[in-house]
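HUMAN: Ready with one sample?

ASSISTANT:
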Amino acid sequence: MRRILSDALSEQGFEVAGVAADGDQALAMCARVRPDVLSLDLAMPGRDGIGVLRALRDQASPIPVVVVSAFSPAYGARAVDALAEGAIELVAKPVLGAPMEAFVSELGDKVRAAATSLVRRRPLAVAPRPPIQRPAPVPRRSIATGKRPVVIACSTGGPKALAELLPMLPPQVGSGSMIVQHMPAGFTNSLAARLDRASKLRVVEASAGARLDPGTALLAPGGRHLRLRDDGSVTLSDDAQIGGLRPRADLTIADAARLYGERTLLVVLTGMGRDGLEGARDVHSRGGRILVAAESTCTVSGMPRVV
């Protein structure tokens, strides 16, 4: 596996600064060569991947980490734990006999994103701002009128952003929430379970036939598009990837805008690429509202920037 990773990265123009066989070797090598990015397995002799992430997190100048992990139900939970411990991205190890092209492309894209992520940037010098003049509170009876369905779209750095955002939300949000987070198939159920434990909202991996509910956030399953039927029920699609992505947030957003029009609220968090832009155009054209994360808070600001 180390040879596969080294060859895949070298072929895409990266310099492989070192190769380590376990967690302790990785930490020693990081201290010596200070790489721009570390690719990290989770199951290793001695100190495992979670231990490496915790050690790196305590450093004054952390190194962005892309976890490259095999998937099983146990490793799925550990991979999501790795994101909570500071990993930038996940890449599923290639299955024996499967074509390598998709794996190599995904690995290269995610290593590039990690190399330019917020983790590597110096803190921004922000000029002091004048006090914010907040409007008077809206009467409660007005808030209950025309509740909004919420669509949250995110990619690189999204699990960390969701882990910060969702626990701050009340037990009921609008008319219900949908989350599209770019992750490999098999990992999103573990992410939903982790977010559910930390949130007042109920967070579940979306299933066919589910309906929006104010107390529930539906997370698009990795490897499937989350769509809405005309009656508002959820359907999961195995249609082809769009721009290398399945799920694709644009599809979910467009369905919500078509069904709910001006009531739609779109929230675009951290992520690389342009997913969410076409959906945002649909929301905007129908009079809905769009919120994007500030660049200074994004691990990678590509998605909110294009919107």
Remarks:
- The domain at 145-306 is CATH 3.40.50.180 (Rossmann fold).
- Residues 101-115 form the longest helix (15 residues).
- The longest strand covers residues 149-154.
- The chain has eleven helices and eleven strands.
